[in-house]
Amino acid sequence: MKVVCRICAQPIDDNPGKDLAPATSLGALHLSCQKKLFGSSLPLLPTLSKSDFLGERLQTHTRRMSISGMQPKLSVALTATQSELKIHPVNMEREQAGVLILKPDPNEFPNAAVLEFFGMHHAQRFGIDTPAIALLDLPEFSQPVFAIRRFDRDLRGNKTAHVEDAMQVMGLQRRGEDSKYEGATAEEAGRGMWIACGKRRQVAADFLKRLVFSFLLGNGDHHLKNISIIRSWRSREPNYDSLAPAYDLVPTGALLGDSEMALTLLGTSQNPEFTDSFNQLGFHTSEDFQELGKRLGLPEKYTATLCRNLRNFFQLKVIPSVERFPFLEDQEGLRIKLRECLEDRLGKFSYTNKKIK
Questions:
Q1: Does 221 participate in catalysis according to the annotation?
Q2: Structural domains in the chain?
C-alpha cells in the first residue's frame, strides 16, 4: 500500500524536499495539506485519549436510525508553542472554543469514519464547498478518526460566522427530533433557505446540487439539521449569504442498507407530492430532481446539465474509485457493500420513462 496523505488521499513522496510534513502519530501528511487544515507547519502533537470522548456521545431518539446521532464527537483546540502545535480537548474552564471536531466510529457502525471521509472527499472533487477534512490515527483507537474543521470559527477559536440549519430556518427547532425528517419537504426547505438568503439563485442551485449528490452517494441521512446557511459574524444584513459548507455526507446505505431519502422531495409536509415517474416506479429518478429544480425556480437546462454531470461523475469517477481508495484497500466486504450501494442509486437515478412499459 502506498503511503498517502491523510487529508487529500493522494500519494506522498518520501523525499523531505517534496512537501512532506514532519513525522506525526496522526499519519502521513503533505505539508501544504497540514497548513490548510491546522494553519501551521509546526510538528503536530496530539494530546488526546479515548477517555476524552466519554460523555461526548449525544444519541438522539427518533423513529429512524441516524449514524450521526450515535457517533461520539469531540471538539478540540490548537495551541502553538515555539516547537510544536498541540491538539487537545477544549478547556471549558477557560471558555476555550474548539476549531476541529473529531468523530471516531460508533460501536454500532464500524467504518463510519472512513465512509464519511469517502463521501466528503468526493464532494470536494465535484466542487461542492466543504470544510477541510482528514482521516487521522489517534492513540487507543484501532480505526482512523474523521476530523473536520469548524467553518464558523477561525483557528484561534474566534467566532467568524453565524449559522442556522434548515430546522431553525423553518421554525421547527422546538419540535421533536423526528421533525428533522418530517417537518418539511426538500421543496419547502430549499425555498425557505433561498428566501433567507435574499432569494439568491445560487443558493437554490447549490441546494439542489447537494441533494442530488447525497442521493447518488446513498446518503439516507441528509435531513434538515444537515443543511445550513451562513453569514459573516459582523454582517448587519438581515439576509444570510449562502449555504454553509457541506457536512455529514456519509454513504449510509453501505452501513444500514437503507435506500430511502431522509426528506420527501416535493410538495409540503402536510401535502406531499410525487411525480408520475415515482408513482409508477416506486423510487426516485433524475426526473424527480429536475422537477424539484423547476419548482425552486432553476432553469430546466441547468438542472438537466447538473443531473447529467453528477451521473457521469459517479459512473466514471466515484464508483471506479471504490476498489482503489487507499483507506478501503483491506476492507473487501465494505468495498462490496459500498459499490452495491452506489450502483443501486446510480441505476435508479438513470432510469427513464422510456423504460416503463
A1: yes
A2: 31-149 (no CATH), 161-355 (1.10.1070)
